[in-house]
Amino acid sequence: MSKPLKASGEPGSEVKPELGEVENGDTFAHDDVFGVISEDGPNYRNVGWLGTSILMMKTQIGLGVLSIPSVFDTVGIVPGVILLCVIAGITTWSDYIVGIFKLRHRHVYGIDDVGQLMFGRWGREFLGWAFCLLFVFTAGSAMLSTSIALNAISMHGTCTAVFVAVAAVILFLLSSIRTLGRITWLAWVGVACILTAVFIVTIAVGVQDRPAAAPQEGVWKSNYKVIQSPSFTDAISAINTLVFAYAGTPAFFSIVAEMSEPRHYTKSMILCQSVVTITYITIGVVVYYYCGSYVASPALGSAGPLLKKISYGIALPGLLVSGTLSAHYSSKHIFVRCLRGTRHLTANTAKHWITWIGSTFSVSMIAYVIASGIPIFNTLISLVGALLGTVTCFQPMGCMWLYDNWRNERTTRWYMMVAWSGFVIISGMFLMVAGTYSSIVDIIDSSGSGAWSCADNSSSV
């Protein structure tokens, strides 16, 4: 018989069975997603509530926070804060629905299972591919930002294509850690590093005479704008950049599936979203207020050459962890899809290891090709937010509420929630179509460095 498993963050306590799970004496023996779990294989139910919140924060706070000031430069401070709060509100509701849906449907592991429930096989395939591509693209963005960091630190010590390849190798190795419980410590490090780096830049631009990119002669005053008048394509690209900053929502399915106590999910999510939103507003407003149109994107290059090196050096582990989690989520999705329902999912067999390493290697290689093929940071994250962010963060969650509540009593609250769910679905569709068009236009018009380029991609940031 398997030995009892312990819950992460609660020394000496055993993992308790939830609805849909089977208890065998004092032994946690079965999970609706992973099947039999024992000490003979990896423990996929080993993340405490605080570790869950940190994983969520690191999934959210990463590449997105580095582009918030440039969004404010596009639309202005006041519209920027309003839009950020609107996106935060919608995604927080979506995050909440993820937890509720998981508790009601314990066999759900990822957003593809949700698609299967609501729309059948085509829904499973469509949302499954959207999830994988979202986080593969995000991993590619992390590789690209890592190459920018390495260029900044080393003063373009070697070909940029080499730095992207180095990032790919590191992400492959770290993402191959099999359980989120064992990756939690990396999330702690990543959150601490990225927040320290961005707050260093935030403080620095406030005390310096002028940002690095501003004219260095004569009297200088920040040219920030309270309200801007962007073109339609620029405005939509800015909104989808904000969507990308909150696009960790579909990964929350994977995180709650590995919680030792899923009923604590909402508490973890609220802590995460509160910290993320406060951080985004603070950094966006302060950096843009002091830098104006001379803000860099990623924002770490806004405070001059020395602080650029320091901030990128501190942020580097955080950028790598962002890529690690993104690669892990998409790899785990493929892995579970291949082995679910077999003993190989939780047993240390040859098939288990070949499938797992094959998944992480494939995801890392595809992300590397994306990072090398679209070497423009702003354009890449806007494209990801537009094409894949809304379709995994907005529309499915509106449909999930309707799926679970359509037959409920027709009260005033029910009609209001139906209207809200419809708004989330329709707004998501609009942002997806318009944002994808805007991002494609930006890519065509971009004059950035070419694919697999050796040029210094940190020189303009």
From TrEMBL:
Protein location: Membrane
Residue ranges of every copy of the Amino acid transporter transmembrane domain listed in the record: 47-440
InterPro entries: AA_transpt_TM
Source domain of life: Eukaryota
GO cellular component, one term: membrane
Residue ranges of the region described as Disordered: 1-20
Keywords: Membrane, Transmembrane, Transmembrane helix
GO-annotated molecular function: L-amino acid transmembrane transporter activity
Bilayer-crossing regions: 77-98, 126-149, 155-174, 186-207, 235-257, 269-290, 310-331, 352-374, 380-403, 415-437
Membrane topology according to the record: Multi-pass membrane protein
Family in the record: Belongs to the amino acid/polyamine transporter 2 family.
Protein's recorded name: Amino acid transporter transmembrane domain-containing protein
